[in-house]
Amino acid sequence: MSVLELKDIRKTYTVKPPVEVLKGVDLTVQAGERIAIVGHSGAGKSTLLNIVGLLDEPSDGSYRLAGEETKSLSARRRDRLRANMLGFVFQDYHVLGHRTVIENLELKLAINSIPLKKRKEMVDRVLGQVGLDHRGDSLTRLLSGGEKQRLAIGRAMLTSPQVLLADEPTGNLDEQNAGTVLNLFDEQAAGDVAVVVITHDERISNWADRVLHLIDGRIEK
Description:
- Keywords: ATP-binding, Nucleotide-binding, Transport.
- GO terms for molecular function: ATP binding; ATP hydrolysis activity; transmembrane transporter activity.
- This is ABC transporter ATP-binding protein.
- Residues 4-221 form the ABC transporter domain.
- InterPro entries: AAA+_ATPase, ABC_transporter-like_ATP-bd, ABC_transporter-like_CS, ABC_transpr_LolD-like, MacB-like_ATP-bd, P-loop_NTPase.
- This protein has helices spanning 45-52, 75-85, 101-111, 116-129, 145-157, 175-190, 202-207, and strands at 2-13, 19-30, 34-38, 60-65, 68-69, 86-90, 163-167, 194-198, 210-215, 218-220.
- The strands form two sheets. The protein has a six-stranded mixed beta sheet, sandwiched between helices. It has a four-stranded antiparallel beta sheet with strand order 2-1-4-5, covered by helices on one side.
- The two termini are 20 Å apart.
- It has one domain (2-220): P-loop containing nucleotide triphosphate hydrolases (Rossmann fold), CATH 3.40.50.
- The protein is of the alpha/beta class and 221 residues long.
- Helix 3 packs across helix 4 and helix 5 (145-157) packs parallel to helix 6.
- The chain is built from seven helices and ten strands.
- The radius of gyration is 17 Å and the shape is globular.
């Protein structure tokens, strides 16, 4: 079953002169698939990820997420669909160093309007999954790079999304920590979560079910 489907997605930035970044991207991702998207700098990978993540809108084309056409959605519905369907993992973690591990996770739940009585159970579950249950009260700035990335993955997993979107998630990690990240992604894929990763890392290319090359604004297999 496909969880997301892009047809003839185009993105042009209206500067002078206009810059066409995506030139007709077609992409269908099934539940539980592990997808790696590779391409040189400036190929449009981040633009594509932002569109899939409902952080940006295409100039043209169709994007269906969980069967729902996204171009006709209200801003409120887009926000709700993003919060419930998608999880994001970034290379530079995007965690709050002056907050504890638990506080970083609870903030995500507060933003998503999760009731207080459910938050502890959800946080405890994710801390166990990513192996940070012994670090819950630690300030995030004191974590290692690998621990910060595991926290970022845990935060993305909190609301049980159907799609995980990751931008260079192993770029700053050594072999051991990169392996831990890929194992966490494997666990999610085994639970029918689609994992879409933008990467330059050959380790992820070897791990993925499909490697797609973004070249001159189009996907080539």
